[in-house]
Amino acid sequence: MGLFETLAFARPELALAIGAMALLITGVFLGDKAASKISISAVLLLIVAGVLVFVSPGGGATTSLFDGAFRIDAFSTFCKILIYGAAAFAILMSDRYLAGEQLGRFEYPVLIVLAAFGMSLMVSATDLISLYMGVETQSLALYILAAFNRDSRRSTEAGLKYFVLGALSSCLLLYGASLVYGFTGSTVFTEIAKAAAVNQNNAGLVIGLVFMISGLAFKVSAAPFHMWTPDVYEGSPTPVTAFFAAAPKLAAMALFTRVLMSSFPGVVEDWRPVIALIALASMMVGAFSAIAQTNIKRLMAYSSIGHMGYALIGLAAGSASGVSSVLIYMAIYIVMTVGTFAVILMMRRRGGMTENISDLSGLSRTNMPMALILTVLLFSLAGVPPTAGFFGKWYVFLAAVDSGLIWLAVAGVVASAVSAFYYLRIIWFMWFDEPTPAFERDHGPALGLAAWGSAALMFPVLTIGMGYLRQIAETAAASLF
């Protein structure tokens, strides 16, 4: 395959990279007065990249590029569409917030596009070197986004914490990758899989795998590598937090899945207990730590930790059905998260944004539509049937049971019951407490679309189309095997 023919398969990534550079140069010349136009252009760029994913020159067939370092398949296509969609909504939802906080700098949408470019590389990476390059491309943009409000002490602190701990996780990932390369003699996932199958009792290879798992667990904020999440979520600007909670989690989970399923399919019994314990710890940390939170962004941080634990249950199953359950869960999780943060961005009064859970008291009497939307989304986050969140948990628990991890599925049910308390507590505040001053209603069409659209997809639209989502996820999962 020639160079130009190879590059034709990477058109989405090329479009994002070249487009981001063009927008950055435009912003440098025009300044912040062009911030809104650059935001619209960035959204259009992400839409174009999504279209290019569908019109791959290979006709949807699995294709390996750059000597096996990059792979286009149904799995990467599924993840890229969700990543680009979440990135586009992160830009659209931020317009009013950035204007209200006087943060209308043109760099914001450019950084989102660059982060999406890195995530796109991550989900297609099939080589240890391309894996690391994708992770760092994403991370560098995210570090800047966390500290985007440079006049805020909380935002600066969030960016610094994220950078320091992110560097530590990158060191763990890189050290693990070097050990894997040292004991297998290759950086390509398929060659690593062959070497691992032959040397299943190689202690050095297992140690390298554990280090890689530790680095990747940080990227999905799974316990016990979750320590950065609450502080970064609380300190970052709210649209940035919404982005952190959605697209990067999917990209990291997809990379996690591809690494384990493509590089170490023959040593499932070695890494399954590690993933199961991380899943258990994440669910319990998310369930119990969120109970005491009074800040809704910190609560969502612990909620995301718990949800990553549920997704890791499907990965611990180590089967095609487990991978498909992870994809279903992450797709539903992204929709729930985008909708919930859209509502959080609507929590604005004349004095500015509010983040306390108590500010939602009596919301049903001051803003009934907003209360209905948040109620549906919280029910789905809790996994209450017949919302989509229930089906997401159902599929990961079913995959765990099929693989003999009954104890992990039971632990997931217990954690779900505990976490339902803090979701239902917010619903109680909204419907039964005395009302607090009303929020401003002029929040823009983008937030309304994200909130109403997410609630509609939770119940009943997405539940009706669950069979179709499962079919797509199964096709995507099958491409890994």
UniProtKB/TrEMBL annotation:
Keywords (A to Z) from UniProt: Cell membrane, Membrane, NAD, Quinone, Translocase, Transmembrane, Transmembrane helix, Transport, Ubiquinone
InterPro entries found in the cross-reference section: NADH-Q_OxRdtase_suN/2 (IPR010096), ND/Mrp_TM (IPR001750)
Enzyme Commission identifier(s): 7.1.1.-
Transmembrane spans: 14-31, 38-55, 75-94, 160-183, 203-228, 240-261, 273-292, 299-320, 326-347, 368-392, 404-424, 445-469
NADH:quinone oxidoreductase/Mrp antiporter transmembrane domain boundaries: 125-418
Record has Transmembrane as a keyword: yes
EC top class named in words: translocase
Main localisation: membrane
Topology in the lipid bilayer: Multi-pass membrane protein
The reaction(s) this protein catalyses: a quinone + NADH + 5 H(+)(in) = a quinol + NAD(+) + 4 H(+)(out)
Subcellular location as annotated: Cell membrane; Endomembrane system; Membrane
Any Pfam family hit: Proton_antipo_M
PANTHER family linked: NADH DEHYDROGENASE
Function: NDH-1 shuttles electrons from NADH, via FMN and iron-sulfur (Fe-S) centers, to quinones in the respiratory chain. The immediate electron acceptor for the enzyme in this species is believed to be ubiquinone. Couples the redox reaction to proton translocation (for every two electrons transferred, four hydrogen ions are translocated across the cytoplasmic membrane), and thus conserves the redox energy in a proton gradient.
Subunit and partners: NDH-1 is composed of 14 different subunits. Subunits NuoA, H, J, K, L, M, N constitute the membrane sector of the complex.
Family according to the record: Belongs to the complex I subunit 2 family.
Protein name, as recorded: NADH-quinone oxidoreductase subunit N
Organism this protein belongs to: Hyphococcus aureus
